[in-house]
Amino acid sequence: MSEEKAGSQHVEDDSTGSTEVYDPIATDRSAQPTVELDPAAESRLRLKIDLYIVPVASLMYLFCFIDRANIGNAKLAGLEEDLGLTGYEYNTLLSVFYISYIIFEIPSNIACKWLGPGWVIPALTLGFGICSLCTAFVHDLSSAAGVRFLLGAFEAGLLPGISYYLSRWYRRRELAFRISMYMVMAPLAGAFGGLLASGILKLPSFGSLKDWRMIFAIEGIGLAFFAPTIVRTIYPNHSVISQQLYTVPPYIIGAFSTLLIPYLSSRFNRRLLFFVLTPPLMMAGYVMFLASSDPHVRYGATFLIAFGSFPVGVLCNAHSAANVVSDTARASAIGTVVMLGNIGGLVATWSFLPFDAPNYYIGNGLNLATGATILVTSGCLWLWSIWDNQRRDKQDVGRMLDGMTGRQIEDLEWRHPRFRWRL
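Below the sequence we write its predicted structure tokens.
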């Protein structure tokens, strides 16, 4: 039975995509039943996978996101002054990370497919930990940019690699909540990173390591980059440690929504519905931030933004994994989704510019527009998927497959007349 679970292209709820007709059974790639599973035994197996695989994946992603986002906390602690960064050089430093992240995204996930997640994911984890540690010893923009480039290269394959790995163990309807169980580490890392940074800044220096360098040294053993800066503009008269702590509550709310929304998505086996429901919350938060100068209103806006934005990444990965058939296509699809998402991160590094402080109308305006774009495109995708499924329902399956060999039928993948888009 574990073999059935491990090969996700062979174990699916229903490769036809219909959510009303079929019970969860094993199918081949042409949507033909191969074996029925005992629900009780399957439940025990699923729990075993939950206990053995998800916690380890979550821990790796927690450290990954802390290492990625700690530069925002380091900025509050004097990184710009110590490295002599002026003008847009901080934004340049952030951009270097995203450039390598985007370049290595798909190659890393293909390597994860062919070399095996058991080798690739631990190697990437070791690599980004070393890079974070090395950041504590940089002294100028050039050395910092070099380390950030390597950090992006190592971290590029982790998020899609873990998503791909989990997709080999879980059914399509089970996947969204399991992905959320490790992606929740992103907002938790934001919360924990702020708490950890505030604690580290109270420690005595160690040799040449002090202030922000201690953050990278100890932690080395998008919103994430700019949340500490935004909080500083809301509460400019508070101490650095106090500002670090103010970043924690919004991330806690984001963590809650990262678990809640995908859980409901898995419970009702609907992803596009929640794609449509979450962007308005994010948009409302950005409208509040742009329309008001009251610090309490703006701080409250960060909670709405976090609640509405964090689940989107989980839903994107789960939806793409649920709507591709072959194992290789799934690896490529997840890598492409994450790569495109991080192009948005690259744009974001040049949206929050020094001259636009403290209101950051450009950055927050672009985020508001992005939320509206997500709402419109997800709604259109939902309607198109329903229309295409209805069109497929009217096809003569026997006539379309007549004369094809078994191999040709398998190679049809999403073009197979029994395939239905998962909603």
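The CA atoms of residues 180 and 295 lie 31 Å apart.
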